[in-house]
Amino acid sequence: MDLKSNSYTIEGEKAYFTLFPTLCKGCGLCMEKCPVKVIEWSDKLGVYGTPAVQVKEDSKCTGCKICELVCPDCAITITPKRKAK
Amino acid sequence: MDLKSNSYTIEGEKAYFTLFPTLCKGCGLCMEKCPVKVIEWSDKLGVYGTPAVQVKEDSKCTGCKICELVCPDCAITITPKRKAK
Amino acid sequence: MAEKPIQGEKRVFMTGNEVVAWGALAAQADIMYGYPITPQNEIMHYWSRLAPKHGKKFLQTEDEISAGFTTIGGTIIGARAFTGTSGPGNTLMQEPMSMAEMYRVPAVFIIQQRGGPSTATVIYSQQEVTLTTFGGNGEGYRIVYSTATHQELFDYTIKAFNTAWKHRFPTFVLADGYQAKMREPLTIYDPEAKGIEMVPTVPTLGKEGVPGVDRPPVHMTNTRNTEEELYEVVKGLQAAYEEMWPEVEEHEAVECEDAEIIIVCHGVVTRSARVAVSQLREAGIKAGYFRPITLRPFPVEPMKQSIKGAKQLLMVESAQGQLARLVKDSIYGSTIPIEPMFRPGIGISSEEIVEKVQSLIK
Amino acid sequence: MAEKPIQGEKRVFMTGNEVVAWGALAAQADIMYGYPITPQNEIMHYWSRLAPKHGKKFLQTEDEISAGFTTIGGTIIGARAFTGTSGPGNTLMQEPMSMAEMYRVPAVFIIQQRGGPSTATVIYSQQEVTLTTFGGNGEGYRIVYSTATHQELFDYTIKAFNTAWKHRFPTFVLADGYQAKMREPLTIYDPEAKGIEMVPTVPTLGKEGVPGVDRPPVHMTNTRNTEEELYEVVKGLQAAYEEMWPEVEEHEAVECEDAEIIIVCHGVVTRSARVAVSQLREAGIKAGYFRPITLRPFPVEPMKQSIKGAKQLLMVESAQGQLARLVKDSIYGSTIPIEPMFRPGIGISSEEIVEKVQSLIK
Amino acid sequence: MAKLVKIALAGEGGQGVQSVAGILVDAAYDEGKEALYIPNFGVEQRGGVSIAFCQISDERIGAPKFEKADIVIALSDRAVRRCAQYAGPETVFLYDASITGIEDDLPGPPVKVLGIPALKVAKDELHPRVFNVVILGATIKATGVMTLDQVKKALEKKLGYKFEQNPELRELNYKALERGAELIGAVL
Amino acid sequence: MAKLVKIALAGEGGQGVQSVAGILVDAAYDEGKEALYIPNFGVEQRGGVSIAFCQISDERIGAPKFEKADIVIALSDRAVRRCAQYAGPETVFLYDASITGIEDDLPGPPVKVLGIPALKVAKDELHPRVFNVVILGATIKATGVMTLDQVKKALEKKLGYKFEQNPELRELNYKALERGAELIGAVL
Amino acid sequence: MEFDISMPKCWRRETKGHKFCPGCGHGLVLKALGLAIDELQIQDRVVFGCDIGCSLLAYDFFNVDTMQTHHGRTTPVITGIKRARPDRIGIAYMGDGGGYAIGSQHLVNAAARNERITAILVNNTVYGMTGGQMAPTTLPGMKTETSPYGREISQTGYPTQGPEMVAAITREGAYVARGTVGKLSQLKNMIKKALETQIAGTGFSFVEALSTCPTNWSTNAKDTWSFLEDEMTKYFKVGELKVPAKEE
Amino acid sequence: MEFDISMPKCWRRETKGHKFCPGCGHGLVLKALGLAIDELQIQDRVVFGCDIGCSLLAYDFFNVDTMQTHHGRTTPVITGIKRARPDRIGIAYMGDGGGYAIGSQHLVNAAARNERITAILVNNTVYGMTGGQMAPTTLPGMKTETSPYGREISQTGYPTQGPEMVAAITREGAYVARGTVGKLSQLKNMIKKALETQIAGTGFSFVEALSTCPTNWSTNAKDTWSFLEDEMTKYFKVGELKVPAKEE
Ligand SMILES: Cc1ncc(C[n+]2csc(CCOP(=O)(O)OP(=O)(O)O)c2C)c(N)n1
Ligand SMILES: Cc1ncc(C[n+]2csc(CCOP(=O)(O)OP(=O)(O)O)c2C)c(N)n1
Ligand code: SF4
Ligand code: SF4
Ligand code: SF4
Ligand code: SF4
Ligand code: SF4
Ligand code: SF4
Ligand SMILES: [Mg+2]
Ligand SMILES: [Mg+2]
Fold first, then answer.
1. Least confident of C95-104, D255-264, F66-75
2. Which residues have CB less than 5 Å away from ligand 10 (the ion)?
3. For position D323, which CATH number holds?
4. CB contact under 8 A, D139 and C227
5. Residue H246 pLDDT greater than 90, yes or no
6. Of the candidates B2, B43, B50, B57, the residue with the CA atom closest to the CA atom of residue B24
7. Ligand 9 centroid – CA G129 distance (Å)
8. CA distances for D138 relative to C120, D200, D321, angstroms
9. Three-class SS of residue G48?
10. CB D40 within 8 A of CB D122
11. CB-based contact H72:H98 (threshold 8 Å)
12. pLDDT at D362
């Protein structure tokens, strides 16, 4: 299975938040660790058929990458805008 | 076998030195530890057919009981004269 | 401790591991020692829940070696002690088991077989027959019951303690992952209510009185300085083993009298054989089955008797001929052909057996 | 490393343990791992003296479990590695051995049997036959050579490495405390000088290149999630085992052609059988002996062939029927009566055998 | 009613397959039947297909597993693939109609293969959480091994304390059971 | 000379039994004979009776141990008791004449039982330390398995470096060997 | 714009999603390890051994040669490998049951012998794979399948202090630390130092990682973190216990 | 005048002379133990377990119920006994090979669980019974049968620091000490305290005794003492490492 299939990216002010549902197991660890609490459940489903996550629209995501780091499944990629492209 | 058979006692100034050849293995540990170096090889044989030990005659044995304590085989009994009888 | 864990008898529907825990409780076991391994874990889970309520004890050890040796310690000091394991744990526990044989320690071991060799599966097999009957550097001075149903699992758990303490050989209940994990109905009971008296335990070490003053000390060694001494010891063990043999051996022979083909199996596979035989009989095929209940001591004479008239034996086991070796050792001299149906590590259905028999008969 | 440890061949007079160390050296073994246990200690003593002089390595581990698993580690990474043990150590080493079976690790194990069960004696027995051929929670996917003389001890130590690396089953040299400790003459040699080529070793893990880039990574697991998967794996092992069987099985049949009574034995007992047979023949008794050299795989067909004409078999072993079980498993269907002469834990002299045969013949 | 009914129920970790099986055999046991239930289990605590093998009968039951089931219920694509082996000529093979990409993996004739919209019904009409109760209802009906009332008793026994607190829950569960049965009635 | 000679040599830990046996079989091996030597061993590092089983032959040798020896040499009371089992009708059973309290333990006829004053000779005429060489000489003579000269060669090989430093030692050893042989000559 | 998966280079993508439960700390420890391997550029030299326990689920995790061993036996297997081929970098990856219970003789003796290997031990306070029995590291009062009424320290002792024990038995040249998946960069750095210690050949290296097991803890994300960060750290002190002297 | 043999009361005279070699320290450790048992008057409650190793020779040493076990397994046997019958006083007597090598998982886990038993470990720096192989406690440079060219610490590590390791893993209530047969009264007192700890039930108790093995050291009496007192003490510090708090 292509790990990138169904991935979705949400553009925030400072960073792009990309989620790979083939990897997300919906554990919620990222959510708890986000310092600005902008991660929420998505209605997209992850690999176990449980909800995946997303950042809230118009999010205050700072691009700190903590969620990326703490995801045990490497399901999140944060791309800070400076770097992106 | 009677453990006391063939035992011999040597009277010193301060103490009686009793050796039980059925127990003495001739290791020599006692000899080395005697602070006044009065233990020597005997021509009596110990349990392994090797020489047992004795105190020198007219010995300066102090009755300190160190030899008794360090004998791994409990082959020596020191009886200080005050106590004896 | 006062109240009996089971009053009279009671119909229940539970997993085999739970059955074992209840069986041990009913048998008035005092303490379980153990190390986790699938598929026997729930014996420990249930026991550790039940134990404190009935004044019983539990110790989780650092490995199976320790589980075996602590069980020996408990037994030697007079407790009705047991442990349970499986697969690689059973392999490791051979070290203490061999000591239990030498000292004739009446410890009880519950084995829930899983797939092998090595880690393999946590599920099921009958691949621990050789290991459980003859493991270790010795001659297999053990008693091994192989069960087929939850009712038997309960009955033989109780019986194992009595056999062990009566005959003083380490005693095993050999089941498997299926039996461990499945649920089916059975009747659990207070042994006394069924007229079963628990053989009293006696401490080997730690009796009353000052050793050397009131009584001689108990000094246990299993180490011999000469071959001749050891030979006497082993001959003594062998003689004791042979003496209890006829009393302890058990088997089940079903429809063997007039059978042309006899299915030979043990443990949970017996269930398939049972169904197969009844279906084959319905189809007019003269089939029967013979099943050792004690794999050690093996029911040699009953087996010879039972198969006398058969034209063929079908050996069915979830292993590569482990039961077959025990059988051939027992009935050597017989010329009845043996057809193997070896399925190492995998379950065997009645359909498969029926099919096989039909292919052989025609 | 350049210089060969043995140039050409050389007559020597040494203990069996020393022979094994020289055999391993001649076989270009790279490393020995081991834990002390009598009567195999001197293998380690000699090896640890010789090894550094020839660029070889030695590691004393914390126990036999570790000795077995480090040996597996060394072998898997491509070293010609071996270990040695006995008795309770052999029991403990079943855990790594069962893993070696599953992964087909060509590790070499030298077993010097001592008395059993449990600690028993440090001297001698043939009571580790079941353990060495079928120990662990599996089906005995191993190759086991049973030696009788120092010459064989040397020959088969070398051969064990080649068999292991060619067929990739863990391979055992099964000797005993007598062979370990006794001195007798033999010829040691450089295998090459005898035209024996050492099968090259290959690493399973740690080959050249970046895994996943230059080559796929090697990922070893022996754990299966379903019975069906395991069944396929074990069937595969069984098939591979059966395939190498005819090539590897070895036996010795002496004076069997016209023998009325055939002594069946293995290992050091063969020496007594040999003397007994020649004495019995001198006395006009038609005796012979059959001896499996490979206890696993058992020389089934050669044995059936060899005993065909015999009126009686005399099973002679320093154990309570451990070889007998292997034999009966192999020749089931035969009706030749088997007379047991079981002497667990003790040596057997030619006189005893002669006497027994005479009592049977008359 | 068949003398012995063999059921294989399979799904993903979260789908509640084992609890459906548990209630089913409990109900049977409570009705005085012989019942045998064995979960399959591998080494992973989560992940992997979860299968429950159940047998219900009036007589003593044979081996815990079987070659061919009377009824297979597969609730995910992987479950369909894993369970094809249990389908024989006499088998009814049920799967949830929402599963996609399994067309080639479904067993062919003579197996009776039926898709039922259990997930959809649960989601749309009831509540996603009672999906497994819908399945339970379907299973009961398909096997005919018990009446719905008998199963309701078992549900009551297991969840009664929750029902007390929230009687609507009872309604929901009963409804789910009935809808499950209806789904089968419609296709069989 | 017998085709196969079986010897059991037994004594206490310190009496040098195993080194006598070692020299004996070394000498035989060097002479191109088949030789087999097995020490007995228990778990104690010291203590217990030490026995050496030796066999020397012109042909391949059978089992390492044997039922009955051609010659048994017992150097202590415990050794006498332990070794009685190896004495058969054909056996010559030698023991040191200084051992006391064993009268009832010595094997009876037809075993040929002979006490030799080896310890006394060593002590009085030579040196207590060569007691075991006296025994070696006696063994050689009793078995006839080799000549004294052959054994001297073996001694030379083993102790030559010491003999070089102290030629008297050589004399002493040779003497001990010969006296041992004589002792046997006197009783046989 | 295409965004790539942010995954250590040495992770094997073909086997992802991996087999660990949702929220399992094993994934995080293996991430830290993966990053350390990437940074040190040693993927071609590493031989990875995993234990029985949930660590077995990592047998196909990396693009690195890997052998799954037996419960508690990864340390000797990797030791055997390293002794035979000192140019390889051996990593023994195990659980707290495998390391502190059944395999503790191997751990302490590898430490005592100063084996040049790296042992990484995942402390999740339970026997994860077998369904949540008490581990040597189970916290006082904590309920598990075999301490159903809460771990009673008067009966079964305090949680095992693994790195402290290892530190007590190792000598100069060794590296011993306790990290946590709650501080992943620190954990990665500890693992890196451990591997550097092995590469330098000064001695044994050992990292215990405090980790999560939501499945057997029965915790949601919030409680998972708080058990790890608030409860476990009461008994297990995060930090370095032994560092090879710079000047050796 | 008749002089009596000066032997601990609980020694069994019928089995004396004992089976240890001349000058063997086992006799001295067992003397210290015998005196401690006498002083505490617990002969009727003690269950003594001895290991395989020369300690097995003590199986009939005392007028005390005794079980010889397997190599390294005395700790679990005594643990099993104590768990089943807490009123007994369990003593596990073993060598350094039995305790620090093959049985180390039992030792550290008994310590971690705070088993109420007393373990006495005889450190003689070698495997005595099997004829003098290297032990975990063999000194650097020391020649043994398996370190024939002297123990190379860069290859096999430093001598195991047993009591230090045990101390690191035990908590309050435990008693841990290292004594020596060179200071017999001190050793006796340590053993006594260990037994008192068990009787008080506060925790695990452990005494390592530095001991002699003239047979495998090939030393005469003088060298035996000096190896024990001058060489061994360079690596093994005699003293108490952990003592139960008075006020508990
Ligand atoms: C010899 C042996 N004993 C027991 C087991 C069963 N077993 C498998 S994993 C495990 C515990 C795993 O716990 P841990 O090491 O803490 O790893 P985790 O799963 O928690 O990561 C056990 C006891 C086994 N496989 N082998
Ligand atoms: C499982 C097992 N492995 C190995 C042995 C062999 N063995 C017996 S005693 C011993 C070493 C004893 O050394 P130690 O424990 O230090 O005791 P010591 O004799 O020095 O007092 C060994 C390795 C054994 N009996 N059992
Ligand atoms: S990058 Fe930081 S702020 Fe943005 S979602 Fe992740 S954790 Fe929250
Ligand atoms: S941590 Fe990863 S797997 Fe867990 S919910 Fe967040 S993105 Fe999904
Ligand atoms: S210490 Fe004891 S055994 Fe050793 S020589 Fe002195 S008296 Fe004899
Ligand atoms: S009592 Fe003291 S002085 Fe007297 S002999 Fe003994 S050690 Fe020497
Ligand atoms: S059971 Fe626990 S440790 Fe194992 S994979 Fe699941 S969360 Fe991780
Ligand atoms: S070998 Fe050493 S430890 Fe063993 S009894 Fe002799 S001196 Fe004591
Ligand atoms: Mg864990
Ligand atoms: Mg020691």
1. F66-75
2. H 95-96, 124, 128
3. 3.40.50.920
4. no
5. no
6. B50
7. 8
8. 10, 28, 21
9. strand
10. no
11. yes
12. 76
Angle in degrees, CA H100, H106, H109, rounded to 5: 110
Q: Does the CB atom of residue B71 touch ligand 6 within 6 A? A: no
Max Cα distance, chain D (Å): 76
Quick one: D42 and D125 in the same domain? yes
CA distance H76 to H49: 10
User: Do residues C186 and C258 share a domain?
Assistant: no
User: Would residue D66 be called left, alpha or beta, if left means φ above 0 and alpha means ψ between -120 and 50 degrees?
Assistant: alpha
Quote the pLDDT of residue H57: 97
Q: Residue F164 pLDDT more than 60?
A: yes
Q: How far apart are CA F152 and CA G75, in angstroms?
A: 55
- Ligand 8 neighbours by CB, cut-off 6 Å: F 45-46; H 20-21, 24, 26, 54, 124, 128-129, 213-216
Is the CB of residue G187 less than 8 Å from the CB of residue G120?
no
Q: Are D203 and D171 in contact (CB under 8 A)?
A: no
**Which chains have 3+ CB pairs within 8 A of B?**
F, H
Closest residue by CA, ligand 4 atom 1? A71
Closest of G76, D63, G73 to residue H135, by C-alpha: D63
In this structure, the answer to whether residues C38 and C155 fall within a common structural domain is yes
D109: domain CATH number? 3.40.50.970
Ligand closest to CA B55: 6
Interface of F with D in 19-78 (CB under 8 A): 25-26, 29, 34-43, 60-68
CATH code for the part of the protein at G26-242: 3.40.50.970
State residue H67's pLDDT score: 98
pLDDT score for F1: 37
Q: What ipTM did this prediction achieve?
A: 0.97
Q: Which residue of G has its CA nearest to A8?
A: G3
**Which DSSP string do the residues of G104-126 spell out, in sequence order?**
HHHHHHHHHTT-S-EEEEEE-SE
Q: Please tell me if the CB atom of residue G110 comes closer than 6 angstroms to any atom of ligand 1.
A: no
Domains of chain A: 8-84 (3.30.70.20)
Q: Domain boundary at D173, D194, D215, which?
A: D194
- Write the burial class of residue C257 (CB in 10 Å: 0-12 exposed, 13-18 middle, 19+ buried): exposed
* Helix/strand/coil for E177: helix
* Residue closest to C288 by CA, chosen among C245, C345, C336: C336
**Do D301 and D166 belong together in one domain?**
no
Q: How confident is the model at residue B1 (pLDDT cuts 50, 70, 90)?
A: low
Q: What is the pLDDT of residues F94-151, one digit of tens each?
A: 999 988 888 888 888 888 999 999 989 998 999 888 898 999 999 999 888 889 999 9
Rounded CA separation C204/G69 (Å)? 40
Domain extent for C336 = 252-361
| The two three-digit tokens of residue F35, written as one number | 């030789």
User: pLDDT tens across G80-131, in order?
Assistant: 999 999 999 999 999 999 999 999 999 999 999 999 999 999 999 999 999 9
Residue D233 falls within a domain, yes or no?
A: no
pTM: 0.98
* Residues of chain C with confidence (pLDDT) below 70: 1-2
- Residue G94 Cα: closest atom of ligand 1: 15
Burial of F165 from C-beta contacts in 10 A (0-12 / 13-18 / 19+): exposed
Name the domain count of chain C.
2
What percent of chain G lies above the pLDDT cut of 70?
99
Same domain, C166 and C268: no
The answer to whether residue C89 is domain-embedded is yes
User: Quick check: helix, strand or coil at residue C302?
Assistant: helix
Inside any domain, residue C213: no
Q: Per the domain annotation, does D245 fall within a domain?
A: no
Q: C93 and C64 in contact (C-beta within 8 Å)?
A: yes
Chain D partners within 8 Å of H70 (Cβ): 88, 118-119
Domains and CATH numbers, chain E: 4-187 (3.40.920.10)
